[in-house]
Amino acid sequence: MSDLSLRGISLTFPDGTEAIANADLDVSRGEFVSLVGPSGCGKSTLLRVASGLLDPTNGSVSVDASSVGYVFQDPTLLPWRTTRRNVELLAELRNVVPAIRRERAERILATVGLTEFADHFPRTLSGGMKMRASLARTLMLEPTVCLFDEPFGALDEMSRERLNGELIEIFLARNFAGVFVTHSIGEAVFMSSRVHVMTSRPGRLLEPIEVPFAYPRSPEIRFTPEFAAICGRVARALREATS
Ligand SMILES: Nc1ncnc2c1ncn2[C@@H]1O[C@H](COP(=O)(O)OP(=O)(O)OP(=O)(O)O)[C@@H](O)[C@H]1O
Ligand SMILES: [Mg+2]
Predict the structure, then answer these.
(1) Which of 76, 150, 165, 191 is least enclosed by beta carbons within 10 angstroms?
(2) pLDDT for 172-212, tens place per residue?
(3) 56: closest CA among 68, 65, 47?
(4) Domains, the chain, ordered by start
(5) Whose CA is nearest to atom 26 of ligand 1?
């Protein structure tokens, strides 16, 4: 049984908007998959269903909701808390005992490269640092399934590429099941073991495209013909999905 299993998911909002039609998705620990699709096709909605925040109209969700981590596009840090206290926030809300929380926060701040900025307030952090803090806050819960909704969409290309590599290192160390929504085909292919393309609304998932490169991946693979060929397949699937 997969750690996250979505079967025949359909979702129609109360106003009649049909967001998702018959979507199946299985992701296990050690798998990192990306979800790409046109704006408004239902990607964020599918993540909300996967996390248990939203009930589908039809279909079944199998996941341990207490072990799901969710990283949003916006870092949503509390401005009056330092980086460290922001990172500790979800663990505090889940009543993780203070000694364990602090020790875990130190370790995770180091993992995301924010040790030096632990006592800074969010307004003094760069966009990339804020995303690192947001990622750290989610990792504090030691999730089995981690959902990412375009976390690096607002960053410049260099910061984004660096964070792609760092997130994959964290994924390899922690071995969660990852679902990553992005509009960037290159980002999807670089990070994932499979890319799922979603059609225009109501979103359906097409047959996934496998990415055969072993982890860890060198940033240089982005410049190989094999990488370009897979990006081409995803781009063609996306064109089909929107036609
Ligand atoms: N609460 C809601 N009530 C009604 N319609 C909604 C609601 N939330 C989202 N929608 C609609 O459902 C569809 C899917 O929205 P969703 O946010 O999942 O798209 P998305 O694929 O994440 O888009 P983007 O790439 O722009 O983030 C859209 O047409 C959106 O307008
Ligand atoms: Mg979205």
Answers:
(1) 76
(2) 999 999 999 999 999 999 999 999 999 999 999 999 999 99
(3) 47
(4) 4-64+144-242 (3.40.50.300), 76-142 (no CATH)
(5) 39
